[in-house]
Amino acid sequence: MMKTDVRKGLWISFFVLPGLLVVTLFILLPLFMSLFNSLFSWNQLLRGAFVGLENFRKIFSGYPYRERFLNALGNNAKWFLLTMLIQNTIGILFGYLLSRRLPGHGFFKRIFFIPVLFSIVAVGFLWGLYLKPTGLVNAALRLMGLGAYARAWLGQEEIATLSIIAVNIWRWVGFPSLVFLAAVDAVPADCLEAAYLDGVGEWTLFWRIVFPLIIPSVTVISVLTIIGSLNVFEQVYTMTGLDGSPNFSTDTIGTLFYRTAFGSVDSGNPEIGIGSAIGVIIYSLTFIASIVSIISTRSREVEL
């Protein structure tokens, strides 16, 4: 019995240790290094004296870091709210409609998911061209007689971030659609049949029966949305660059972190300490928001 237990433990360790090693090297170690570096002053790439929480104080109260950080955080909040309200709502709708096996559902399932397979750099570069004043979007609007709606989509502060978010939603909406499709398909057929026999309408069927049973998938998508919204970088970088143009209106804490760590916000020199502090804040916000999301959605889960 003893030998069997030891052998079982060795097999478990054999499969767990590689994953644990990856998590340690690429998640835990960088996190602790960022926390360590945030507690020191830096002369470009040379670590200086221990300063405690001074770098965090600069972010929340020092000029111009406070203004830049709050502006970037506000943009990340826009990403989260619009992605949750638009992308995930559309995803649930598409997933539910596809589960009804309407005519052409196989075709639409592929069409919705194709953009997810595209490279984020390619998507950002192409849409950056399409959204230029002389780009494809404005040309299409003029062709349809809607030239009055043509805009410099990435050149106006009021709509630049919204334009990038719209592109991101277009790219990712297929993912939650397929996740929710799989979740709806997993709902026991006898529950749906019993509801239909009782004369339950489609909306009541979805809201009272289907939705509570797919809450685990809602939890997963919510957490992924939080992580994605707080770590926005590539889409903004490829469409408007690292400077948050126009006038920092597209800036996120990801692009602010990069500019600060590798070329300071105010001096042009790397600020490793403040950049590391921003990295720690990003992780902390992601962790806290994810836990809150898990707790709030788990409370609505039901079991058959």
Radius of gyration: 24 Å
Q: Judging from the principal axes of the Cα atoms, what is the shape?
A: globular
What is the H/E order? Answer: HEEHHHHHHHHHHHHH
Can you tell me the CATH superfamily of the largest domain?
MetI-like
Oligomer state of the chains in this structure: single chain
Beta-strand portion reads under 5%
> Which second-level CATH architecture of the largest domain applies?
Orthogonal Bundle
Give the proportion of residues in helices: over 70%
Question: Looking at CATH, which topology of the largest domain would you report?
Answer: MetI-like fold
| Top-tier CATH class of the largest domain | Mainly Alpha
Arithmetic mean pLDDT: 88
Q: How many helical stretches?
A: 14
Structural class: mainly alpha
Strand order of the largest sheet: 1-2
Largest sheet: 2 strands, antiparallel
Alpha-carbon distance between the two ends = 38 Å
The stretches of 5 or more residues where confidence is low (pLDDT under 50) are none
Number of domains: 2
Q: How many strands?
A: 2
